[in-house]
Design brief:
Helix 4 links the parallel strand 5 and strand 6. Strands 1, 2, 3, 4, 5, 6, 7 and 8 form an 8-stranded mixed beta sheet that branches. The chain has a 6-stranded mixed beta sheet with strand order 10-9-11-12-13-14. About 4% of the residues have low confidence. By secondary structure, the protein is of the alpha/beta class. It contains 11 helices and 14 strands. It has 2 domains: 193 residues, no CATH class; 132 residues, Rossmann fold (3-Layer(aba) Sandwich). The longest helix has 41 residues. It is elongated and about 105 Å long. This is Glycosyltransferase 61 catalytic domain-containing protein. Its main location: Golgi. It is a single-pass type II membrane protein.
């Protein structure tokens, strides 16, 4: 009996011992996992550098980390923004702007780059250089967040970096460059930029046309603010950056229409437009200088006569250079048929309601000289949900009408 009691006591002791041992082992394993995660989170270094770090026995852990961070800072390599190897095909492939980096390719979306991201391996975008005449003297690099260059400034928040093959003062080219950013924002919880960086062929630009600036102010509820580089040797690294360098390339018609719908809505809200529109609004939007009608009174009288043929048609004659931004927004809201010579003022067409119509006129001989540029407002109408009703040629002092304007009016609304 005594032996049985001793055996039971022994077995009980062993069970207790095993329980304690299991608890100790479990705690030890958990501590090791926790320690690994903390180390991994505190220093996002490449695996090869972490291996190197472990094989430096003469240094303490803190010294090793500081040593490697310093090495990473020194290893940041800046490349020219403008790569002359691609100067003969600036809009193809990588383009000559940041030519070593690939764009993200998502079906139906504009091509873009985002930093930090998986494709950048968590690295930030850094830019430096202050040249406004030669993009090869401005530079870019990628750097780990813990190891940006010693003399670099970290720009907080989101920054939009725009590359434009043309410029930021022409209404058409400027808007075409900005629309992909609007589309990106719509895909990312309407996130808005704190700063903008503008490049034209890799050359810095510190402003844009007033009309385009107003569009961005309306869209993002704040005036665009441009990053200014203080010194050519002091880089700026961006906490988060989105780069667009192909304009609307890759965007589906649905994505474009969505972006234009958003900008139109924001512009009307920004300008507090409450105007009641006529049953059928026809606007003759004139311009001065090149491509203006030679005899405006003849043209105006022709459109007045044709507008009277349709019940409820109201003709408005305006000059684009005499209107403020909000006046242009208000005018376009009242317009169902926009009639205008070929020119930047036609960029306003997206501010009309969807399914409105555009009648575009070219001077005699212009079609032969315009090249692909003759189609930009046909594209714009298609992208924003409008109808481009055709192109007309001005013959001397008179207009060769291929269709009756009244027929265009009837195509807008059922009377």
């Amino acid at each position: 009996m005594l032996r049985k009691q001793r055996l039971v006591t022994c077995l009980s002791s062993m069970k207790s011992y095993l329980k304690v041992l299991c608890i100790i082992v479990t705690v030890f394993v958990l501590l090791q996992i926790c320690s690994f995660q903390i180390t991994k989170h505190s220093l996002s270094l490449p695996p090869s550098l972490l291996t190197y770090l472990k094989h430096q026995p003469d240094q303490t852990s803190d010294n090793k980390t500081a040593y490697l961070v310093e090495k990473l800072r020194e290893s940041v390599t800046f490349l020219p923004l403008k790569d002359y190897r691609f100067s003969n095909k600036p809009l193809e492939g990588h383009t000559w702007f940041m030519s070593s980096l690939f764009d993200n390719q998502t079906k139906g979306e504009a091509q873009y780059q985002e930093f930090p991201s998986d494709s950048s391996k968590g690295r930030l975008l850094c830019l430096k250089g202050i040249d406004k005449h030669d993009g090869s003297w401005n530079y870019y690099a990628l750097a780990w967040p813990e190891a940006i260059p010693t003399n670099a400034v970290l720009q907080k928040g989101l920054t939009f970096v725009s590359y434009n093959q043309y410029d930021y003062y022409n209404l058409w080219h400027g808007l075409s460059t900005m629309v992909p950013f609007v589309s990106w924002s719509l895909r990312n919880r309407c996130e808005r930029p704190q700063k903008w960086v503008l490049y034209h062929w890799g050359e810095l630009r510190f402003g844009m046309g007033h009309w385009l600036s107003e569009i961005l102010t309306a869209t993002y509820n704040q005036e665009p603010e441009f990053t200014r580089f203080i010194d050519e040797d002091n880089p700026v690294c961006f906490e988060k950056a989105v780069v667009m360098r192909h304009d609307q390339a890759g965007m589906s018609r649905e994505r474009r229409m969505e972006a234009f719908d958003h900008v139109r809505c924001k512009a009307r809200s920004y300008c507090n437009i409450t105007t009641t529109k006529p049953r059928i609004g026809m606007t003759l939007l004139l311009r001065t200088g090149a491509r203006a009608f030679r005899n405006e009174s003849v043209v105006i009288n022709v459109f007045k006569r044709e507008c009277k043929r349709v019940d409820g048609c109201e003709l408005n004659v305006s000059y684009s250079d005499n209107l403020t931004f909000c006046q242009q927004v208000e005018l376009m809201k009242k317009t169902d048929v926009l009639v205008s010579p070929h020119g930047a003022q036609l960029t306003n067409l997206f501010l009309m309601d969807r399914n409105s119509s555009v009648m575009e006129f070219f001077p005699k001989g212009w079609l032969k000289l315009a090249g692909v540029g003759q189609r930009v407002f046909q594209w714009g109408a298609n992208w924003s949900g409008m109808r481009h009703e055709g192109t007309w040629i001005l013959l001397g002092k008179h207009v060769n009408f291929l269709i009756r304007i009244g027929d265009v009016c009837r195509s807008i609304r059922t009377l």
